[in-house]
Hints:
By secondary structure, the protein is an all-beta fold. 0% of the residues lie in helices and 32% in strands.
Amino acid sequence: YNRAGEISVYSLTCTHLGCTVELDGEAFACPCHGSRFDPEGRVLAGPAQDPLRRLRVEILEDNTLMVYADGD
């Protein structure tokens, strides 16, 4: 949740070479090559140049959280 109460969901795939990033304190870190991303997916440290991909989300009437990947 952000300060406006909105939910943001980001892909955990590093934009450098596709490794899975992991939560590391208040940031996300790539165990393969050391890239770091802030909670909003922005690059804090490379070698990644692009932010984490933001995914589309929807809260259904029964409070189910739907996360949509590419093409959904």
